[in-house]
Amino acid sequence: MTNHWVDIKNANVIIVMGGNAAEAHPCGFKWVTEAKAHNQATLVVIDPRFTRSASVADLYAPVRTGTDIAFLGGVINYLLSKDRIQHEYVKSYTNASFLVAEGFTFEDGLFSGYDAGGRKYDRSTWAYQMGPDGYALVDETLQHPRCVFQLMKQHFSRYTPEAVSNICGTPRETFLKVCEIIATTSVPDRTLTFLYALGWTQHSTGSQIIRTAAMVQLLLGNIGMAGGGVNALRGHSNIQGLTDLGLLSDLLPGYLTLPREQETDFKAYLDKRSIKPLRPGQMSYWQNYPKFHVSLMKSWYGAAATKENNFCFDWLPKLDKVYDILQVFELMAQGQLNGYFCQGFNPLAAVPNKAKLVKALSKLKYLVVIDPLATETSCFWENHGEYHDVDSAKISTEVLRLPSTCFAEENGSLTNSGRWLQWHYQGARPPGEAKADTEIMAGIFLKIRELYRKEGGPFPDAIANLTWNYQIPAAPSPEELAMEYNGKALEDLTDPKDPTKVILKKGQQLDGFGQLKDDGSTACGCWIYSGAWTEKGNLMARRDNSDPSGLGNTLNWGFAWPANRRVLYNRASCDTTGKPWDPKRKLVYWDGAKWAGADVPDLKPDAAPADGMGPFIMQAEGVGRLFALDKMAEGPFPEHYEPFETPIDTNPLHPKVISNPAARVFRGDADEFGKGQQYPYAATTYRLTEHFHYWTKHTRLSSIMQPEQFVEIGEELAREKGIRGGDKVRVWSHRGSIKAVAVVTKRIRPLKVNGKTVHHVGIPIHWGFKGVARKGYLANVLTPFVGDANTQTPEFKSFLVNLEKA
Amino acid sequence: MSLQSLDITRRSATTTASPGQRQTTEVAKLIDVTKCIGCKACQVACMEWNDTRDDIGENHGVYDNPADLTANSWTVMRYAEVETDRGLEWLIRKDGCMHCAEPGCLKACPAPGAIVQYRNGIVDFQEGNCIGCGYCITGCPFNIPRLSKKDSKVYKCTLCSDRVAVGLEPACVKTCPTGAIVFGSKEDMIRHAEERIVDLKQRGYAKAGLYDPQGVGGTHVMYVLHHADRPEMYCGLPKDPAIGPLVGVWKGAAKPVASLALGMIAVGAFAHYVANGPNEVDEENEKEHKE
Amino acid sequence: MNVTRRRFLKICATGLGSSSVVALGFPVTKAQAEVRAFKLARSSETRNTCPYCSVSCGLIMHSLGDRAKNAESSIFHIEGDPDHPVNRGTLCPKGAGLVDFIHSPNRLKYPEYRAAGSDRWQRISWDEAFARVARWMKDDRDRNFLAKNAAGATVNRWLTTGFLAASASSNEAGYLTHKVIRNLGVLAFDNQARV
């Protein structure tokens, strides 16, 4: 979230799209009902289904699954053609005025530089025109035909209300009503917030959907504002934290990136990431990359990391490609993996195309599952009849299952969707011999280190020298680990303005990432978390909920990264002179000498407005990007591409380029995509409020509330198929088949799309072959093995099925 | 049993007047159906707090689960898909005891002290005194109480009298994610409802209103409805609930006959319990309760 | 005897005058009204955070006993933390039922091993489990670790074992996991954020 949960109450318009906040995040949704009750806010829900969120909305707009870019592109077209944008914001805080390189084109669904064989782009033309001074060229009148503003206008001019209605199935009048509600927030003192979740990410175009929403918000001047922003409502309690800590194939903690194998030179590695400003006077904060990176290396390798050995740069594994979960299961299915660990993760249920997953897991030599619960993955070799029909005797994978603690049995912090780190405490002992994840990781590591000490082996250096100065080596305490990722001074640190003044003594906890050094005198395990545990103690455990501004920022509750800031880009809540756009919602302001206000200012504290430092300090331009340069796989402007399985078997905008041309599709998986003729119904998977993924089927109370697997279909489709509510139905895709109870509802209506009637089939995901709820089929029996072109998040939200009465 | 209690205003089948000197605040739970997302947190919190667990049932082709109130489920969400002039509306109502000011259950109950009404308005069942006759079920205009198959006693929402007695709000109120359920003095709840109705009318719900039916003397569980003129749309919320006329007439002519019959039931039920364990409710009876 | 109560009531009309049963001999003194004992009166409270979605609602967990040496804490009730700025005491249906997650019959209690081709689990000790995992890993790493690529560049990677990290484990567990796994050279490393 750019903003945070409580801040939703400050919104005037709330758009729930690509998510179902009432269903999946009910307690966060309270701030929506609060905005409605006390801020006269308007709630709009855009979804293929009339959801629980829709049940309390002021306006519901149906949309075909997988067509969100078309819808939002239509909104952009509406705002631009009706001139309903926040002009001063767009001119000063976005790259609308930047000139784009001459070679950049868009024709027939493809941007310049496409390589059809490799399914990827040469992105070199997706760039700015550069001046001789090394800065990008701009035209502040926004009239230059090559400026971003004009190119954007042209790009989205195709997304007329008629085109939107034809692609999305949204009635034209409803679409226009939504546009009008959104446009009311283009004035400086009204804001709109977008609340989204997996309904936007789980598409082959997911990242671009979110980008389109971000563009809408930039045009309306709603980023950085109280009650504004683009807000990802993340799914799991610490998925934000695990992402921040870089537990992904190509990341290091704090969004630092692992080197590619071509990057053999340490200095070049740092320089590439120390991005220089693209406009005069900009902060371009990533220029500090070396400080973050070197401090991480010092944290991991201690004295072994020296200037002379490039702080152990060579010790880091180097990437030949990104090993995302789809890539890994593809390799596993090919027999190229021997071992696999699942720590609190149930991939047999959570990754698409179950048949492929079973095949892949069966090829492993060993599988280690660390979990509090008996997951399906740990039992993938067990036969559970129609729900999971395998022959145990033929599966030679050895499996170890290690019991871990749950939340109630450990101390530690979790990072919520609003970037708050909050500390929690142990309330009881774990059952039986279950151990904390920290102890399990320590146990494994110490044993391996011992083996390498005894037996030797390839490249033991990083293992042998990994800092492990915990009081009890077999059980590092959460407190020690938190202090480690916050970071400390390895030498006395002096004030840069007065070198005689020591601000931190050797060994003291850092106050924040502003104190990090690139010379090895500081250690910090995750720079963005620096400030969480300082000499003042554990700031994540703070419990002062006072809210003097009334905006809900509670700066003394827990700790928010970065630097305890609650609303990102909050400098953009003021005009260029430093005066808040909306005097009623003053997040920050320039007081004549410095930035002050109800939040931690997101700017150099003494950067005078007159100096023109832009609010988007992580970007080299200092402004928000309406044109994404080369950062996205499939183009600098979002474009509507159909899901890989589309019920209309074409793309009305460009029939030759139907689906995302830059999405990675593995050979065998392409053969498993179904066509509209055989599988006429648009299917989508989702969560129910009564359950949490595949966990709560293990809890009795949740299982009482939704005991049995079902699928939802509209009354019209049910009539056609002779299905009544409560009947058993069979649903199948090109990959597999499930049986479930039919819920027949008025809340799913057929849509008119490209001259065709499209029915949706809704498939909640929560059942499986383990648990106290009634046994059911894992819903990923049905789903296709293809992901977003940028993140590889699987396309769980849009695929094709057929169905019949069972 | 605890010594903790609340001031009592009346108890079933008892002529002795309750002490009436102390005046405690009349409380109420307000359920704002227009804010409710039907998440069932109230159902879970109710079961968790009261240490009951219903069966893990089946899906009957709807979201309602458990399908009906039971001796373990003292509140359930009822979902109605209704087409109005505003288009499709998903009207979701939390069903449970209304804590009537003139409680039909209490008036119908023949077992002394099995049903009490506290001064603050809560109508509570004292299962220790319940003889399992089921009169309360018939007496209830909202079809709320449910007979347990396990112990042949009748259960329903207590409005968390154990929590309210120590100054806390009921469990369902506390948990409600969207603030659709609120709790306080009846006076405050009426004021809260009025504010909500103003907001709803501004949003075009011309008939928005408060449900506090006077046929039962008003209730201590009230609803804010978008369509207060048509409460039946909310899964059959009765428009003008009243205690069955016979409860009122009862004390006259039929009394001796009924007293005798009741005595037979009470004694007989006890004998049956000793001999055979708890009663099973027969199918017909069960069905009638659901009507 | 199986009295159809409803039918009976239809005959003699609904409800019964209050004096009736007293007349039949039920003693009034027994009819005291008591509310159920407040079950949290002396329970121990622990602050925690809901492990489900990322709203991260504040929790108060109530456990048996006062944490005296001889009392085993067992969590018997969980409700929302009213001081928490986001949830302000509320919990959704999942959070309100957390106590059944803690005590789920499907919680794992001991390390277990399943041999190739077997159809059952076998309980083992932690020492055995750690030794076995470390052996598997080291054997695989020793055999497949790639110090340099074909071009001769130092790459120090190990691609034949992968690791999927949790999504509800603490930051501290996540940090330690990253530290350990990355330094073995693992690149097939991912977490729930992807899906």
UniProtKB/TrEMBL annotation, chain B:
<keyword id="KW-0472">Membrane</keyword>
<feature type="binding site">
    <location>
        <position position="100"/>
    </location>
    <ligand>
        <name>[4Fe-4S] cluster 3</name>
    </ligand>
</feature>
<protein>
    <submittedName>
        <fullName>Formate dehydrogenase subunit beta</fullName>
    </submittedName>
</protein>
<dbReference type="InterPro" id="IPR051555">
    <property type="entry name" value="FDH_Electron_Transfer_Unit"/>
</dbReference>
<keyword id="KW-0004">4Fe-4S</keyword>
<dbReference type="GO" id="GO:0045333">
    <property type="term" value="P:cellular respiration"/>
</dbReference>
<feature type="binding site">
    <location>
        <position position="39"/>
    </location>
    <ligand>
        <name>[4Fe-4S] cluster 1</name>
    </ligand>
</feature>
<feature type="binding site">
    <location>
        <position position="133"/>
    </location>
    <ligand>
        <name>[4Fe-4S] cluster 4</name>
    </ligand>
</feature>
<feature type="binding site">
    <location>
        <position position="136"/>
    </location>
    <ligand>
        <name>[4Fe-4S] cluster 4</name>
    </ligand>
</feature>
<keyword id="KW-1003">Cell membrane</keyword>
<dbReference type="InterPro" id="IPR017896">
    <property type="entry name" value="4Fe4S_Fe-S-bd"/>
</dbReference>
<keyword id="KW-0249">Electron transport</keyword>
<keyword id="KW-0677">Repeat</keyword>
<feature type="binding site">
    <location>
        <position position="172"/>
    </location>
    <ligand>
        <name>[4Fe-4S] cluster 2</name>
    </ligand>
</feature>
<feature type="binding site">
    <location>
        <position position="109"/>
    </location>
    <ligand>
        <name>[4Fe-4S] cluster 4</name>
    </ligand>
</feature>
<feature type="binding site">
    <location>
        <position position="97"/>
    </location>
    <ligand>
        <name>[4Fe-4S] cluster 3</name>
    </ligand>
</feature>
<feature type="domain" description="4Fe-4S ferredoxin-type">
    <location>
        <begin position="88"/>
        <end position="120"/>
    </location>
</feature>
<dbReference type="Pfam" id="PF13247">
    <property type="entry name" value="Fer4_11"/>
</dbReference>
<feature type="domain" description="4Fe-4S ferredoxin-type">
    <location>
        <begin position="121"/>
        <end position="150"/>
    </location>
</feature>
<feature type="binding site">
    <location>
        <position position="105"/>
    </location>
    <ligand>
        <name>[4Fe-4S] cluster 3</name>
    </ligand>
</feature>
<dbReference type="GO" id="GO:0046872">
    <property type="term" value="F:metal ion binding"/>
</dbReference>
<dbReference type="GO" id="GO:0005886">
    <property type="term" value="C:plasma membrane"/>
</dbReference>
<feature type="binding site">
    <location>
        <position position="130"/>
    </location>
    <ligand>
        <name>[4Fe-4S] cluster 4</name>
    </ligand>
</feature>
<keyword id="KW-0812">Transmembrane</keyword>
<dbReference type="GO" id="GO:0015944">
    <property type="term" value="P:formate oxidation"/>
</dbReference>
<feature type="region of interest" description="Disordered">
    <location>
        <begin position="1"/>
        <end position="22"/>
    </location>
</feature>
<dbReference type="InterPro" id="IPR038384">
    <property type="entry name" value="Formate_DH_C_sf"/>
</dbReference>
<dbReference type="InterPro" id="IPR015246">
    <property type="entry name" value="Formate_DH_TM"/>
</dbReference>
<dbReference type="Pfam" id="PF09163">
    <property type="entry name" value="Form-deh_trans"/>
</dbReference>
<dbReference type="GO" id="GO:0051539">
    <property type="term" value="F:4 iron, 4 sulfur cluster binding"/>
</dbReference>
<keyword id="KW-0408">Iron</keyword>
<feature type="binding site">
    <location>
        <position position="140"/>
    </location>
    <ligand>
        <name>[4Fe-4S] cluster 3</name>
    </ligand>
</feature>
<feature type="binding site">
    <location>
        <position position="176"/>
    </location>
    <ligand>
        <name>[4Fe-4S] cluster 1</name>
    </ligand>
</feature>
<dbReference type="InterPro" id="IPR014603">
    <property type="entry name" value="Formate_DH_Fe-S_su"/>
</dbReference>
<keyword id="KW-0411">Iron-sulfur</keyword>
<feature type="binding site">
    <location>
        <position position="157"/>
    </location>
    <ligand>
        <name>[4Fe-4S] cluster 2</name>
    </ligand>
</feature>
<keyword id="KW-0479">Metal-binding</keyword>
<feature type="domain" description="4Fe-4S ferredoxin-type">
    <location>
        <begin position="27"/>
        <end position="46"/>
    </location>
</feature>
<keyword id="KW-0813">Transport</keyword>
<feature type="binding site">
    <location>
        <position position="36"/>
    </location>
    <ligand>
        <name>[4Fe-4S] cluster 1</name>
    </ligand>
</feature>
<dbReference type="InterPro" id="IPR017900">
    <property type="entry name" value="4Fe4S_Fe_S_CS"/>
</dbReference>
<dbReference type="InterPro" id="IPR006470">
    <property type="entry name" value="Formate_DH_bsu_Proteobacteria"/>
</dbReference>
